[in-house]
Amino acid sequence: MKEIIAQLTEAFGPSGYETEVTDMIKGMVEGYADEVRTDVLGNLIVVKNGSPEGKKVMFAAHTDEIGVVVTHIDDKGFLRFANIGGVGVATLVGNRVRFANGTIGVIYQEKGDWKELTLDKLYIDIGAESKDEALTKVRVGEFGIFHREFADLGNRLIAKSMDDRIGCAVLIEALKKIDKPTNTLYFVFTTQEEVGLRGARTAAFGLDPDLGIALDVTLTGDMPEARRMDVSLGKGAAIKVKDSSLIAHPKVKELLVQLCETNGIPYQMEVLEFGGTDAGAIHLTKAGVPSGTISIPTRYVHSPSEMVDIRDVQACIDLVVAVSNQDLTGVF
Ligand code: CO
Ligand code: ZN
pLDDT of 213-232, one tens digit each? Predict the structure, then answer.
């Protein structure tokens, strides 16, 4: 599983340009699914048929990652850029950007006060000595990602874009463990989550599921002087109560808690004071879809070095498998 996480997190997939990731996932799920298709927005929909009396369950994990878009190239070949998704300015200076064609650049700042650092005070240096040389490598409008390699620390792993390739890895690993599920499962590897839950919105409309569950990262409160939050690395799958996009449907939340209890899966309750997931879009589809989120506790979210604990990842996989095999007749 670590190998899969390494491959997924090192792939290139800023919002809107996720095909390297979805193609990779297509290869990984081959042979485990009854049907694999892609929709207009690029969502990869992997279907696993259940029994006739089963419900339609949509699981969503997003394939896109935060990044940058080039807005201007100056006469000396330096790039200016805007953010794609929630980019923290404090994580940028000295970090590297990679573009689709492999061009690498370093982000640095103009002179001035660190405390007043804003995106428009930053530039990307791709080593070009002139605008003409820069234009042989990058154009205005091109998207880039934060370039960083995967690191295996034992139980804990660091990588860029754990948000949300780790959710993708959970769904891939769960699919491999599911033989004849009770429910018909739609594992949706969504696009454009980081810019407003866009892929999940059209995917859910097309599928019209009985139950929606997002797999995504959540914050933790277990670092030095951290914002208070009762989620820690290594303490199990996090079952979302609420975030800015969703109040988990009580029946979904209770189902997840009950399945953890009966299957001995470690879990913790998550109250996230800001942020959202694909479940925020799914639950507002058509006349409404009962929805919830299984979160993977993650430190340093939206930095180029996001950290997860492999034991929490395992707990999330076990919970997805449990939902897949649960008889939901009369519940949803
Ligand atoms: Co995110
Ligand atoms: Zn995410």
Answer: 999 999 999 999 999 999 99
Q: Class assignment of domain 2-65+160-324?
A: alpha beta
pLDDT tens digit sequence for 245-256: 999 999 999 999
* Cα–Cα nearest to 173, from 326, 320, 293, 73: 320
Q: CB under 8 Å to 125, separation ≥6 — which residues?
A: 78, 79, 105, 106, 107, 108
Question: pTM of the entire structure?
Answer: 0.97
Q: How far is the CA of 164 from the centre of ligand 2 (A)?
A: 5
Asked, colleague to colleague, whether 2-65+160-324 and 67-146 share their fold, the answer is no
| 65-101 residue pLDDT tens | 999 999 999 999 999 999 999 999 999 999 999 999 9
Marked catalytic residue, from 18, 193, 270, 306: 193
- Domain ranges for the chain: 2-65+160-324, 67-146
Kindly identify the ligand whose nearest atom is closest to the C-alpha of 302.
1
Instruction: Give me the mean pLDDT over the 174-199 stretch.
Output: 97
Secondary structure E strands in 155-266: 156-159, 184-190, 211-218, 237-242
Is 193 an active-site residue?
Answer: yes
Per residue in 234-275, pLDDT (tens digit) is: 999 999 999 999 999 999 999 999 999 999 999 999 999 999
Distance in Å, CA 242 to ligand 2 centroid: 15
Q: Distance between CA 82 and CA 79 in Å, rounded?
A: 10
Identify the pLDDT of residue 160: 98
Ligand nearest to the CA of 167: 2
Q: Identify the nearest ligand to the CA of 301 by its number.
A: 1
67-146 fold? Elongation Factor Tu (Ef-tu); domain 3 (2.40.30)
Question: How far is the centre of ligand 1, averaged over its atoms, from the C-alpha of 265 (Å)?
Answer: 25
Is residue 289's pLDDT more than 90?
yes
What's the gap in Å between 216 CA and the centre of ligand 1? 8
Find the 29 Cα to ligand 2 centroid distance in Å.
21
Query: What's the rounded Cα separation, in Å, for the pair 257 and 266?
Result: 10
